[in-house]
Amino acid sequence: MSSDHTQYFTDDPYSQTQYSDIDRSETPLYLEEDPYSSTEQPFWPGRASYPVHSSYMINQPLSLNGLSINGARNGSISYPYPDISQPPSAPSSQRNRHYQNRMQQQVQDRSSGFMNKDSHFPIIPQELDEYSPPMMYSPPATIPLEINQNNMKSNANGNVNASDYNNGNVIYKFTPAMEQAINNTAAAVANASTPMIPMTQLNDPLDFISAPSRTVYLGNIPSNLTVKELLDHVRSGVVEDVKIIPEKLCAFISFVDESSALLFHSDAILKRLNIGGKDIKIGWGKPTTVDPMISARIINDDATRNVFIGHLNKTDNDSCTKEPITEAKLREDLEDFGEIETVKIIPEKGIAFVHFSSITSAIKCVHNLRSMNPYYENKKIAYGKDRCAFITKTQQHNAAQFLGVQSGMENMAKFSDRKFISNALLQQSAAAAAIATAAGGPNNLGNRTVYLGNLPKDIKIEEICNVVRGGLLQSVKLLSDRYVCFVTFIDPTAAAQFYAMSSLHGLTIQKKRCKVGWGKHSGPLPNALALAVSNGASRNVYIGNINFEKDAMRDPRIFTEDSLRKLFRQYGEVEQINFLPEKNCCFINFTNISNAILALDKIKSNPHFEDLKINFGKDRCGNVPHQVR
Fold it and tell me: Which residue ranges does the record assign to the RRM domain (predicted)?
């Protein structure tokens, strides 16, 4: 072990991790092993979440609830706030004024959202303890000290004087000036642990931060990159315009609002955006304002890049070709208005969606198409939703998890608000970036693989999945001969959160404290896998409508654990199989999400599964850990 308590796992081919051998309290944090639970509780223990302010403060210390974890590797803990648990000696008036001025400066720094260079940047608490009253603070009328009544001097009536403090055999009497100084100190400490936003916005991330521009710069792009291929990676908001400059290997994406641009910018950095095998450079374009004409159309008509065309009946043939409308025909008819990104026709519904590369082109199309082409005179022409602004299930889940909102609750309706989602995910991404870089350096940004070491000798992979919480898993790889495991999450944000919580509180399996670190950088999530996850894919395969009574009469039986393991083992390693006979279903959990996708595709052709309902189940590792009380 080196002097800075950092151990390097260089002998492991799967890991280039650095582990924090931190001396923690003797009582470990036990994560409840609940493989069947779908209950989602606020993720972070206590009342604070991880640092989220401004840009990724890579060189800044991590801070939680007034504790500073410097570098997050050496395990040193410092307290940036003044210690007021013991009464200071009576100061001079000059020292008292200096003390008040210093505390007032801290209050100003905290209220502005930033600390000075010698301080620790603040934490925005995102949720309240379920059993705690709202964290409102007003300066107390008496000294805000936790005083043992056995050490208090009572008056003749048996009442305790708040300004009398018994320190052993010495009685201190605070002067009014001293009381005011201590009150100021208490106020500063309270401000450090209470929201820096109104209580009505405690869990509301709106207006969290502003971007320097609506336009994001992308460099080092493939020379043959198309607009469609580029926008396939955008899921942060409504796009106003896209420009690709092949000769300079760069592109610019302009969003309608700055929050969408900031979310895409931070997400691309955190996940290390990779297109066509090339790592994309991310920056900011020149700041501009939205054209007043476009703004008016957006406000009045909900204008987007997407043009909706309805009433495209199969029998309604084109007057020129005498055939039903085709994608090629739509492109030919509409390309005069501007560059077209995608065309999607749904014949059974008689509708089509045409995405232009800019909102301006779409506005021209909607207002002029009927008058310019007789075929569209009786068609319904309107604006559709920008495909880059769709809120995926993963994004909604991440935002709810970050804000401590349980899925299925009525207030989830608010998550349909794009700006609300964007800012919640932005805070989460910034927090994850700060955690990942503080622990593993700038090169660790976007890493999705967490290293677990010092595992019990008889550990099973199921036991590991029982304690991993906070995000969907891509894979779990157990090296039992080395007593280590590598857990790769789908989302780097989830990996950073799991690492932070496990490092701070410890991770225990079979009453044994495990080592937690970063594994070899996972790289970005493959696009095909990201698309599958957005459509509901997970490690868990659900099989429903099982007739267990009929299966019991078979010889051999199919729906037993041994039979199913033998059957599904051909698609990949099976982690766990759960049966729910009362609901006529079972769940097969794989150690790799790719194996689950393959199994779901292949098993449907098996005669024994033809009449059964087969789909993806919920990965229990995606549940939020029960809040530590």
Answer: 214-287, 305-396, 448-521, 539-619
Look at residues 513, 492, 491, 488 and name the one whose alpha carbon lies nearest to residue 503: 513
Please give the single-letter amino acid code of residue 347.
Answer: P
Element (H, E) at 486: strand 484-489
For residue 219, tell me if it sits in a domain. no
Q: Is the pLDDT of residue 76 over 50?
A: no
Burial per residue of 277-286, b for 16 or more beta-carbon CB atoms within 10 angstroms, e otherwise:
eeebebebbe
- pLDDT category at 397 given cuts 50, 70, 90 is low
201 backbone dihedrals φ, ψ, rounded to 5°: -115, 25
Q: The CATH number of the domain where 532 resides is what?
A: 3.30.70.330
Host domain of residue 108: 81-119+137-193
Whether the CB-CB separation of 128 and 135 falls below 8 Å is answered with: yes
**Using CA atoms, how far apart are residues 208 and 201, in angstroms rounded to an integer?**
11
Determine contact, residues 252/221, Cβ cutoff 8 Å.
Answer: no
What is the pLDDT, as a whole number, of residue 502? 87
Domain count along the chain: 4
Give the angle 43-48-52 at the CA atoms, nearest 5°.
95
Q: Sheet holding 215-219: strands in order across?
A: 239-245, 250-255, 215-219, 281-284
d(CA 272, CA 368): 41
Judged against a pLDDT cut of 70, whether residue 146 lies above it is answered with no
Sign of CA dihedral 206, 211, 216, 217: negative
Mean pLDDT of the chain: 70
- The domain boundary, picked from 384, 411, 443, lies at 384
Distance CA 402, CA 40 (A): 11
Tokens describing residue 54: 């401004």
pTM of the full structure: 0.49
Tokens found for residue 350: 């008689």
Q: Is the peptide bond before 556 cis (omega within 30 degrees of 0)?
A: yes
